[in-house]
TrEMBL record:
GO terms assigned for molecular function: all-trans-retinol dehydrogenase (NAD+) activity; all-trans-retinol dehydrogenase (NADP+) activity; estradiol 17-beta-dehydrogenase [NAD(P)+] activity
Residues that bind substrate: 143
Organism: Cavia porcellus
Protein name, UniProt field: Retinol dehydrogenase
Known pathway: Steroid biosynthesis; estrogen biosynthesis
Predominant localisation class: membrane
Active site: 156 (proton acceptor)
Record keywords: Lipid biosynthesis, Lipid metabolism, Membrane, NADP, Oxidoreductase, Sensory transduction, Steroid biosynthesis
GO CC annotation: cytosol; membrane
The keyword Cell inner membrane appears for this protein: no
Protein family per UniProt: Belongs to the short-chain dehydrogenases/reductases (SDR) family.
Amino acid sequence: MATPRRTVLISGCSSGLGLELAVQLARDPKQRYQVVATMRDLGKKEALEAAAGDALGKTLTVAQLDVCDDASVAQCLSHIQGGDVDVLVNNAGVGLVGPLEGVSIATMQSVFDTNFFGAVRLVKAVLPGMKRRRRGHIVVVSSVMGLQGVVFNDVYAASKFALEGFFESLAIQLLQFSISISLVEPGPVATDFEAKLLAQASTAEFPGTDPDTLGYFRDLYLPASSQLFRSVGQSPGDVARAIVKVIGAARPPLRRQTNARYAPLMALKALDPSGRLYVRTAHRLLFRWPGLLRFSLRCLACSCLPSRVRPRPE
Ligand SMILES: NC(=O)c1ccc[n+]([C@@H]2O[C@H](COP(=O)([O-])OP(=O)(O)OC[C@H]3O[C@@H](n4cnc5c(N)ncnc54)[C@H](OP(=O)(O)O)[C@@H]3O)[C@@H](O)[C@H]2O)c1
């Protein structure tokens, strides 16, 4: 008898990683998945539907889901046959960059509402069913910024650190119910994410920020960030393929980084548990030796390096 398809619910499928992942899973050659690709605004479903092609209505359905809205989550789950989600992918997320003096607490809270509480809200909704069935897989699109702080990304990084702590803690309890958790940690990915951030950063005035800090942000950080995306950025397709592997694994990993070119930056933290090596190196590269930073990023982009972390045997 054929194995029943696993129902996969993904948040934030209007663009970027969520869209790519939904399409790759729906087009799985072994037809292992029934994908519920969700987005908060169904007015944006055209790109997903076009990319899904003939999988639309067969292995992929599109549904409305705003991760910040309890009623929307409940409504979405009520349409899933049997209400059972086998794999939940918490992908929806928003970025925020800029000097914190110029960002309101309400704006910071809205980042946590989406990135952290949005994921928690979905988990609370699907967990009782997973526990009852004693199986399930929760995948969280975290970030390298869930492991390592990055200048002028204070609030975004904090929201991803919060996810890392929450889901690592939950993973211990859920082993008892045979439910797996996987935190996927991409580096920069070439999606609308960066464009949205740059648009927000270039129009924001950051009131109350002193001129020195504003200058560092606009003249040093923003150009360096653009170069980082250009030099080590992965395609959403590559990251989605890494997530597909995690979902298909017999023993899913708790953590999976996707970008080998970002690994040297991550190594700075691992090499010195006091944190001094990473903070001082990042500070010097941005504020003292921006020429060296540009050169290092060009080296990281060199094609002699592998383009992504080699898959480990599952
Ligand atoms: N791009 C990167 O460099 C990068 C790196 C590491 C991790 N990530 C993470 O990857 C995930 C996907 O980002 P992406 O790069 O694919 O960016 P993206 O193209 O901007 O996609 C973000 C998605 O989240 C959705 N979203 C935002 N708020 C939502 C809400 N309240 N309810 C439901 N959906 C909501 C967006 O919908 P709308 O279209 O309605 O706004 C969009 O579909 C995020 O968690 C992000 O933090 C991205």
